[in-house]
Amino acid sequence: MKKILYGIMYSFKEIKNSKIFYSFLIFALILVSGSYFVSQTSFINQGRIMVDFSIFAISIFNIFIGIFIGASAVYDDIEKKSIFLSITRPLKRTEYLIGRFLGLAAAIIFSTIIMMLIFYLVLLIMHKFIVPAGSIAKAAGSGVKPAGVSSATFTFYLLPQPLIIQGLFIIIESIFISAAALLFSLITSKALASVFAILVFFIGNVSSRMNDLVRPVKKIINGKVVIVHQANHVLAHIVRFIYTVLPNFSIFNISSEAAYKVNIASDVIFYRIVYGICYTALLFIISSLIFQRKDIG
Amino acid sequence: MIEIKNAAKYFRVGFFGTKKNAVEDLSLDIEEGKVTGFFGPNGAGKSTTIKMIVGLIKPSGGNIKINGYDASDYRARLKLGYLPENPSFPRGLKGIEIINYYSKLLNKKINKDEIDDTLKLAGIFYAKNIQAHKYSKGMTQRLALAVSILGDPEILIFDEPLSGLDPIGRKEFKDIIFKLKERKKTIFFSSHVLADSKELCDRIAVLVNGRLIKNENLEDMENEAAGYAEERRDYRLPAEYSTPLEIYLYDLMLKSRKN
Fold it and tell me: Does B51 touch chain A (CB under 8 A)?
């Protein structure tokens, strides 16, 4: 356990110092900070545009971090031979892989928190989309002053619940896709692993919509349910197979709810988190089995 | 200590996955407290054998045991230090951070003084606060050596430890190996530089085309080499080699080579 913990810390430090991580982080921060200027292109719903744009930037750059660093974390170690000194220590290969993967997960959490903090600051400055969490008296004994007197109280503002949940979902989604990238990088090259991971992400985002499209369209005519349109059977089966086998990433996108401040029910949050964690664990177990049998040389 | 029994390794190459033997039927015992040199031309299978010993690759046949444990078992590496050929470290981390990390992977507690002593022995203490990607090849090699000897392991396996080093670096590196030899460490190192044989080794193993063609004590090998040199007196000797042992090893490799 201690070895895994040191592995996570070492991996996190290494990723934190990598150029690719910094580049994505800085890009995302520029976009989030610039979301105000983008929102100025519209006369209405400026707050919503800011939120949409920022959430998109945070999400896409974390996905990029997950894919590109996930595909290179172990692959580069093998290519550059830096793995030789690690796994020839009294360390199980699984422990090494867990350390690398959780280090990457820590880096994703770190980057998401930084991005969300900047996003929060932008919203705070613009005074849009934030909700008061409560207020405290400025000085002891000043509780006698009437509430709402701004000079006497500090009002705390928080991000609304759906935005916080969206941040959490971005973390889960990015770790999830990084597990896929890690798995692909163990069986193919780094470039191909990145391409495959992007494809999985893309298909995972559209598969539920595709599945809806190939479902038979039914209508009630004269009290009977009648199929008025049926997609090609082969195509419908293929789409259903892809929908069943590949992860459904669209469940982690709640930007519409976030933009309209619609609270997400706790059971929905729970099931989606469990779905993400279980799928990630499955991908990691497959990676671990492949890694244990892999010749490293 | 290290027992290799009928170890073999093949790789699949090309589009159709044709089998290519890297090591064939290799049996070798590495004796405790001795320095064993593993010589052979480029592509002989030395690095593949070493990678099988340290558990990086799995043998296609036969078995390798270290202190009674299979080489793929992590317990086999409890008392083992390995220095790979052309080692490298991740970007952005300082020498001290790297060695601190590796010290935590050992099954015993290593204190700061031990780390400093190891860095001093490897001759890289002065650069411990510099990021490892800014190191020269010699410095990287020294840091990797420090990592491999950290925790005072009983068995040390060095893959081409002197390759790519300048003459001063080679001399200093050899001195370190001498110090480790004095401490009665079991050292197994590969090299294709025959001049290293007499200086460093107690025992010499020669591998050509994946087959072990010699595995003898230095004294026996020197006696054979002296006899061979007597027989060969009328031939022109290669200018690069001066001692009978070097000439003997050179001819042995040359004759056994397929191509």
Answer: yes
Q: Does B82 touch chain A (CB under 8 A)?
A: yes
- Give A-chain residues touching B91 at CB under 8 angstroms: 14, 17-19
Nearest residue in A to B143, CA atom: A85
Backbone angles phi, psi at B86, to 5 degrees: 45, 65
Q: What is the DSSP string of B195-244?
A: HHHHHH-SEEEEEETTEEEEEEEHHHHHHHHHHHHHHTTTSPPPTT--SH
Q: Residue B147 and residue A85: Cβ atoms within 8 Å?
A: yes
CA distance B160 to chain A (A): 14
Are B148 and A85 a contacting pair at CB < 8 A? Answer: yes
Q: Is the pLDDT of residue A3 over 50?
A: yes
* Residue A152 to residues A131, A140, A293, B25, Cα–Cα distance (Å): 19, 11, 66, 86
Selection from B55, B192, B141, B211 nearest residue A297 by Cα:
B55
Alpha-helical runs (H) found in chain A = 2-16, 19-33, 35-39, 46-64, 70-79, 83-87, 93-126, 161-187, 190-214, 233-245, 255-259, 266-293
Cβ-defined contact of B74 to A92 (cutoff 8 Å): yes
Q: According to the model, what pLDDT value does residue A144 have? A: 46
Which residues, in sequence order, are CB contacts of A273 under 8 Å at separation 6+? A168, A172
Q: Which of chain B's residues have a Cβ under 8 Å away from the Cβ of A89?
A: 77, 102, 105-106
The per-residue pLDDT for range A51-102, each reduced to its tens digit, is 888 899 999 999 999 999 999 989 999 998 889 988 898 889 999 999 999 9
- A250-273 burial, b for 16+ CB within 10 Å, e for fewer? ebbbbbebbbeeeebeeeebeebb
The chain B residue lying nearest A89, using CA atoms, is: B77
A/B interface, count of CB pairs below 8 Å: 86
Burial-class residue A274 by CB neighbours within 10 Å (0-12, 13-18, 19+): exposed
Rounded-to-integer distance, Cα B87 and Cα B250, Å? 28
Sole residue written with tokens 């539920």: A208
Q: What is the mean pLDDT of residues A25-44?
A: 83
Contacts of A92 in chain B (CB under 8 A): 74
Could you tell me if B22 and B60 are in contact, meaning their C-beta atoms sit under 8 angstroms apart? no
Q: Does B242 lie at the interface with A, CB-CB under 8 angstroms?
A: no
Q: Are A85 and B84 in contact (CB under 8 A)?
A: yes
Check if B195 contacts A (Cβ < 8 Å). no
ipTM: 0.86
